[in-house]
Amino acid sequence: MTEVKEMQMTGEELRRERRLSIPAAICGLLVPACLFGVIGVSAEAGSGGGQAPRTPIEVAKRQSQFTIDTASDSLLRIGGVNGRPSADLGATTEIVPLTEEVNEVNGFDVSSTGARTAWLVTGAEARPLILSDGSLGESVPLAVEGGVEGLALEQTARPTATDDDPEATRPPPAKGFLLDRDNRILGVSFPQGTVGEPIAVSGLGEGERLVAIAGGDDGSALLAFGVDEAGDGRIHRVDTSDGAATDPRADGQPVTEGLAPDGVFGIDLDLDSGTIRLVGSERHLTIEESGAGAVREHQPPGAEDVSATALLSVIEPNQAVLPTEYEEYVATGDTWLLANLLRVVAMLFVIPLALFLWDASRRRRPVPTAVAGLAVIGAIFFGLPSLVAHFAYTDLTNAFLASGPQTWPRAVEFGEAEAFRIAAALERFAAIPLALWVAWGSYEAMEAGLLPRFIGLLGLVTAIPLIVFPLPGVILATIWIASVSLIVLGLWAGGRPPAWAAGRAVLPDIDPRYTKETPRK
């Protein structure tokens, strides 16, 4: 073993160290308090496990409600900041104008498996609608006598486009059901437009007419909305094998009254929450528990002129347009800012403890000044990039929402913005200097006898996960910092190692009570 020069502290130096140990340890204990605050605030702000969205590609993974406005020939979204209706259902927002005029909508649905193409039925024809740019494909004739009243795609259609090819526009094959104007459902396959034999829906009320259908929560049933001659509207579950309709409401009461029997309606099921969304010429409803629970009525801001032709669709995760979590980030911007500020403050509290531990170690054995410098650099570098990334992300988000179409190609373009790439790169490498200090500082303090072997080795082990696995690494680093603080205060089990009182490097043996002192050779 290389011989290390023994160093002995004077009594005045020991008293000074003792005085400084208390504020340094308190700062160390404030670190986990702030970091746990970061976790709590982030969990409150983020609906995805407390994680803030990090790239425009990642944020395009939320459900959204869509409508077609035949007055302005536009694709619209109805919903709150994350695409799902809030208490007031949220505002109506234009997403992208359609490339062609649409005078009448008799059916509209989007595959819930991530397809970027919707199918839109007008009269006796169906047309694929590319969500990213609003373009309409070639018409597909539908042999349905009397015309179509509604469309519901099955949950088994697969998208042709992938995340690696965000601009792909070829519509995916899809299967689903059509609703005709005689209360019958017909199987349909796209893009051929092949229509199966009609199945009459049974179990409806007297004079009741079905006006909208949607895919249910399994492959064997459809959701349907019917209105009778008195204007009462009811939700039904329709078995696709025999057409039998059942009412999910045990009391048999309608979900709404006073509707115009010839109104235009759209219905769909939010598979995530189990609520049914109903959009119509006179009502905008959310019905909980898949139609059996409470009914909330809304009038979305901006929907007054489009409700007569609003047909609803819900896109499930990984859809290619409308990164609506941009808006969620803006709406919770103050909360994310608080989380990032807490992270910066936590790292600033690391500095006094780190400098104190370095000073205590160097007075007992030679320790490079670089350890102190690495601690300061690591603490600052670990805290600030998250704050920089927050402001960069917020600026990009505001720019995305302020102008231009909210489409997938444009989201990709924003994701490649230089400011965001720099901020993301800083965050990726932010933990490296901090991890190096935890390992190096822990080793030097352990060799000086200031830390028990277990805590010293914990610091060494923490370095790698802090770089490779951020969350587990931060948890381990937080435990290590809290443990060091308790040792400095003398509150660690077994008391402080003898090197603290001896004023020189003293390595404890395997006795956890430190009953022997072994001077360093």
Structure report:
By secondary structure, the chain is an alpha+beta fold. 36% of the residues lie in helices and 21% in strands. The protein has eleven helices and 23 strands. The strands form six sheets. Strands 8, 9, 10, 11 and 12 form a five-stranded antiparallel beta sheet that branches. A four-stranded antiparallel beta sheet has the order 3-2-1-21, with no helix packed on it. A four-stranded antiparallel beta sheet has the order 4-5-6-7, with no helix packed on it. Strand 18 and strand 19 form a beta hairpin. The chain starts with 10 loop residues before the first helix and ends with a strand. The C terminus is likely disordered.
What labels would you give this structure?
521 residues, alpha+beta, five-stranded antiparallel beta sheet, four-stranded antiparallel beta sheet, 36% helix, 21% strand, elongated, disordered C terminus
Structural class: alpha+beta
Proportion of residues in β-strands: 15-25%
Flag low-confidence runs: 47-63, 80-88, 156-171, 316-325, 509-521
Shape: elongated
Helix content, binned percent? 25-40%
Number of helices: 11
User: How many beta-strand segments?
Assistant: 23
Distance between the termini: 8 Å
Estimated radius of gyration? 32 Å
Main beta-sheet annotation:
5 strands, antiparallel
Instruction: Output mean pLDDT.
Output: 77
